[in-house]
Each structure stands twice: as structure tokens, then as C-alpha cells.
């Protein structure tokens, strides 16, 4: 997946080393990351991470959502898509198929589907 940042929104923030590290990591990923996923890859304390994530969310650069494990997951806001979270293995998948429904007069920002993933469904 080619994640591209909104350059107009990106120009509104000072791109520190810490911010660049977070954005690079999120851009190179094909799935959302939580803090625990990121802290193993870059050296940054939790307060610094969340302070920067808040700035990214305010500038509309990233999406976030909470998963089954009560952790918050983050990804670059690029192509509209929905997420599937497996109730069995807690795997998170980005789904790019358009949903088969429309809610008149609503603006949908995020769709999270839950159930059994393909792998868990195969195994019973």
C-alpha cells in the first residue's frame, strides 16, 4: 500500500526528528500500529509519542481506532477503507472493498467490522 501524507496539513507542523520517525514508520506499514508496535522500532517515550500523535490527529494526517485489546491503533489517513478486527485472534486487516450500504444524510468517517477472519473461519 502506498500511504501518502496530506502535504498541505503536513506543512502546518514542525517536522521534528521524532515526528518524522513516527510518520515514516506509519507510512511504510500496510497495517495500523499501536504504541507497543512502534516503541520496539523507534526510541521514544510514551508521552512524546502521544503528544506527537495528538498533533497528527489534529492536523488530519492520521486515523486512529480502538481494537479488541483496548489499545489505540494509528495509521496514515490516505485511502478511505474499513477495518476488520477478528474476535478470535484480534488480527486487524485493512479492507479496501466498498461496503454494500449507504446511510443517507450521514458522513461516515470510520467503519470497523468485527467477526472471524478468513483464517479463523477456516479453522472452525
UniProtKB/TrEMBL annotation:
GO terms for biological process: negative regulation of DNA-templated transcription; regulation of secondary metabolite biosynthetic process. Pfam families: FUR. Binds 1 zinc ion per subunit. Keywords: Iron, Metal-binding, Zinc. This is Fur family transcriptional regulator. Gene3D superfamilies: Winged helix-like DNA-binding domain superfamily/Winged helix DNA-binding domain. It comes from Aliarcobacter trophiarum LMG 25534. Fe cation binds at residue 97. GO terms for molecular function: DNA-binding transcription factor activity; transcription cis-regulatory region binding; zinc ion binding. InterPro entries: FUR (IPR002481), WH-like_DNA-bd_sf (IPR036388), WH_DNA-bd_sf (IPR036390). The lineage of its organism: Bacteria, Pseudomonadati, Campylobacterota, Epsilonproteobacteria, Campylobacterales. Its cofactor is Zn(2+); Mn(2+); Fe(2+). Signal peptide: none annotated. Zn(2+) binds at residues 86, 89, 117, 120.
Amino acid at each position: 500500500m502506498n500511504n501518502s501524507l496530506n502535504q498541505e496539513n503536513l506543512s502546518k507542523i514542525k517536522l521534528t526528528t521524532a515526528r518524522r520517525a513516527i510518520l515514516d514508520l506509519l507510512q511504510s506499514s500496510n497495517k495500523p500500529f499501536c504504541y507497543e508496535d512502534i516503541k520496539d522500532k523507534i526510541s521514544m517515550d510514551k508521552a512524546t509519542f502521544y503528544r506527537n500523535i495528538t498533533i497528527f490527529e489534529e492536523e488530519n494526517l492520521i486515523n486512529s481506532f480502538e481494537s479488541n485489546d483496548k489499545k489505540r491503533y494509528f495509521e496514515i489517513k490516505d485511502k478511505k477503507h474499513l477495518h476488520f478486527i477478528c474476535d478470535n485472534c484480534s488480527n486487524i486487516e485493512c479492507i479496501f472493498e466498498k461496503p454494500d450500504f449507504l446511510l443517507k444524510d450521514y458522513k461516515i468517517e470510520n467503519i470497523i467490522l468485527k467477526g472471524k477472519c478468513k483464517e479463523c473461519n477456516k479453522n472452525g
